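Give me the fold.
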Amino acid sequence: MPLLDPRIKLRHLTCFVETDRQGGVVAAAEALGLSQPAISKSLAELETILGVALFDRSRRKLALTDYGAVFLRSANLALAALQQGVESVSQAGNGDAVVRLGALPTAEVEVVPRAVAHFAMGPLAARVHVESGPSPHLLGLLRGGGIDLVVGRMSAPDVMEGLTFEHLYSEPLVLAVRPAHPLLAQTEHALRMVEPFPALVPPRGAIIRQTVETVLLAAGITSLAREIETVSNSFGRAYALLSDAVWFISHSVVAADLASGALVALDVDMSASFGAIGITTRAGAETDLPTAAFIASVRQVAGSSS
């Protein structure tokens, strides 16, 4: 991408935009606190740099040429972007900034806590507000501007209109049970063996619900006898530990429990359940500096753990 002509200064853009806004050099000079000759000189320099006339001076009232009308749109956007950048830096520096995010169950135990800790050590550290819940709730907040990003599994394509998804890594579901679960004593492991037992599953509308149903149908299971629907990781863990329930859950949610032996993953092929984990944002939305820094922390954490 070519660099901006170094001869173009901020004063050129400011004088040009204000002259158009005020309808003339005299009013622009008064609004900017400059002399009329200074305004005229800046406009003349800008026209020389661009090689075109920006104003039609043949009329009684100063008017934009076609070139001027085109350049005005870009000049306004440039000044607005610069002002937004100044405000973002100022807000980040005085401690008023807040990063608002949604953490889906697939990310609220592993990725999001580590990302918050990483972000807190950086130069743009700010207050962080973390909202949790099922996908429809968090995507509703995202669309309405209540939060600025969602971290977790990618939603179905039919609900992603107006949103963008950045893929970070993929992971499968696991069937987590307590260490003394009777299924662990079986010598042959197949998904159909879970049918007689209570099943902790995501509710209808949750992102991984469709994945669970697809995996079950592939194994010839059309329904589970005793379903307990939840998106609460703490409830799922507690119930799995005190009962013979089989917990259908993303691997990262129970990774620490599997590593410590507090829970055990049934030896069942769940490769068909792999799903994309990443960051969902509003398409075309402006991202302030602290939020951009937090997104960078999510990428860093996800890259080191995937």
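Residues 12 and 42 are 5 Å apart (CA to CA).
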